[in-house]
Specification:
Elements lengths: L1 H9 L2 H18 L1 H5 L30 H37 L1 H15 L3 H12 L3 H11 L1 H16 L2 H8 L4 H9 L4 H24 L11 H8 L8 H28 L1 H4 L1
Helix pairs in contact: 2-4, 2-13, 4-5, 4-7, 4-8, 4-11, 5-8, 6-7, 7-11, 8-11, 9-10, 11-12, 11-13, 12-13
């Protein structure tokens, strides 16, 4: 099954490109010390604002730190923040949505009204408000992004559960005396998880952009951490004399988000049986 899905994914050029981009970033994140070759925090003011050249492929920032090393180690931070926030949203939102869709009644009504209240706030402003209350820092950014990402997962999980809950095999299991948890575990969750996997890929891209935005405003990762958003914020003062300081982290964000979106679209085509046919 996995081998067949991989073959179908490779047959789609855009999805293959997305997978290659994401794998390249993931490899950079996992092997950052060996890929970078330099300390991302090491300063050398004699190299400040130097442009790209042999031995310093992306140039140096305002403190003479190697930008390639900072981008490589920043990839780790972006993946950690994006993956952790998405897992929080998937666990909380997916559980709430599936329970609401399967149980129905007053629990469904109450859960969806709570989700409607959360959707009334713009996502970035909600994350901004949460981080403002909790204080700046990577952990608080993860919590904030995870919370504002719950509604999409809840709605998707509820819709998937409603599509499965009245099918014949679920009714048969219920008639044979299977309990609610057993039906959820053996029938509802396995047959509702595919859309959530696709949504996780797409929401991870949103989480990375939001984390970069919060760091740009000074509410995310704090200097001298090599986080792409904070690098953009620090480099904007030198955009005229050293445009590479903002161009490099901006392109890093753009290509990673592009790869995640292309991969998500490809997974949607592979995992959705209607599109697969």
């Amino acid at each position: 099954m996995v081998h067949r899905a991989w073959d179908m994914l490779r047959a789609k050029p855009r999805a293959s490109l997305g997978a290659v981009i994401v794998l390249a970033y993931l490899g950079m994140a996992l092997f950052a010390p060996w890929v970078a070759g330099k300390d991302p925090l090491a300063q050398d003011l004699s190299l400040a604002l130097n442009g790209p050249r042999l031995g310093a492929w992306f140039g140096n920032d305002e403190y003479g730190r190697d930008l390639f090393s900072r981008i490589a180690f920043g990839t780790r931070l972006s993946f950690v923040i994006g993956a952790a926030a998405t897992l929080i949203a998937l666990a909380c939102g997916g559980t709430l949505g599936m329970a609401a869709g399967y149980l129905g009644g007053w629990f469904d009504t109450l859960a969806m009204r709570v989700i409607d209240v959360m959707l009334a706030f713009p996502s970035f402003l909600l994350a901004l408000g949460i981080v403002s209350i909790l204080g700046p820092g990577i952990l608080n950014v993860v919590i904030a992004i995870g919370i504002f990402s719950i509604p999409p997962f809840s709605r998707m999980a509820r819709a998937s559960a409603l599509a499965v809950v009245n099918l014949d095999y679920v009714e048969t299991a219920r008639g044979l005396g299977a309990g609610q948890w057993q039906i959820m575990r053996r029938h509802v969750i396995p047959n509702s998880i595919s859309p959530l996997i696709v949504l996780s890929t797409l929401r991870m891209a949103t989480a990375i952009i939001t984390a970069a935005g919060l760091s740009f405003l000074g509410l995310g990762a704090q200097p001298p951490a090599p986080e792409w958003g904070s690098m953009l914020s620090a480099g904007r003062e030198y955009i005229r004399v050293a445009p590479h300081i903002v161009t490099v982290p901006g392109l890093a964000i753009m290509f990673l988000v592009l790869g995640l979106n292309l991969l998500g679209d490809g997974l949607r085509d592979v995992l959705d049986p209607r599109l697969r046919q």
